[in-house]
Amino acid sequence: MNTGFHVKHNCFCLQHETSNLRPLHAQVGGHVGMKIFDDRYVCKPLNRRELQFYQAIPRQLSQLVPGFVGTLTNGNAEEGEEFYSNKSKNCSDSAGSQTSDYLVLENLTMGYKKPCVLDLKMGTRMYGDFASEAKRQSQKKKTVKTTSAKLGVRFCGSQRFSVSKNNFEKLDKYVGRKASETEFRDLLENFFNNNGFLRRDIISHVINKIRDMRESLLDLNQFRFYSSSLLIIYEGQHFSDSEAAGSFESEDSMDCDSFNATIRRNGSFESEDSVDCDSFNATIRRQGSYESEDSMDCDSFNATMRSRKTSLAKIKIIDFANATMPGVFEDDLVHEGPDAGFLLGLENLQDILESLYEDEPRVRKP
Description:
Layout: E1 4-7, E2 12-15, E3 21-23, E4 35-37, E5 41-45, H1 48-56, H2 59-62, E6 68-75, E7 100-106, E8 115-122, H3 133-144, H4 148-151, E9 153-162, E10 167-171, H5 173-178, H6 181-191, E11 193-194, E12 197-198, H7 200-218, E13 229-235, H8 241-245, H9 249-252, H10 256-266, H11 277-287, H12 298-308, E14 313-318, H13 340-358
């Protein structure tokens, strides 16, 4: 009997080789049980509502969130395999399952040698439409005591690579809960301090990304990203100019040929289950199992990877267990207009970063 994982219609089933699942060391927020699988994927404990959100994400939002691969169940194939497709309507939360079920997302830190990661809780409201009254009151009290109430953004954790110490300096979410507006600005300044100076190149890049994100979210009527976060990642390892030019290419890029080679090398497919990119695309077209806006063929995948590998920094919206969008969650309230709380946070974050960028340079600890 073969062990490993199988892919069927963008689904994973992990059989026995649980050593392939490792803790996510770059995790800086408050999540529990995040894993890395095969280095290229992040496995997050499955939440039905978040799964539905990823399944229904429109095109204009897809570039602002991590790539969604499908779902994975970590169980014993001899006891019966379970496959969850990214169109399935029958997945249950992992808490109610005897196996460990995960959302499978792209690993945003892939290709970074020393990823500096910042998690910012966005918006002025931290509970979903379905929250109990006790939960609502608890979150409201927490919000008014933090920068979330006024700024629409608060520090939720970070890891920054220190060149002088040759290790990561980590801060948790409790630092952010106590931080004043001035201290929040100082936390941002510290995060972008790398190799002995403030990384204005990174800050400028992030500012541009935030500006683009604000424009995109303004067009998303009735979407609400309650308790979602903004994840910012940049490279903390020092590179010479020649090294920097190609520093993300080999680790970040994965074209169809290398995908197929990886599959063959791992030996993780039975012959009747193996699928290369061409046959996968043909299967998808034949079955019509994906809407056009959700499908990603090999050419699109390769183009996406090429566009990402030269990025100075990545900035993505994450965590959608409390989010809502029109036409997906039947019992949710209808919220007219864009998400004003999230947009407030982006605006204030952009203002703070612009002020940091304009500050006089000074010597800092690397």
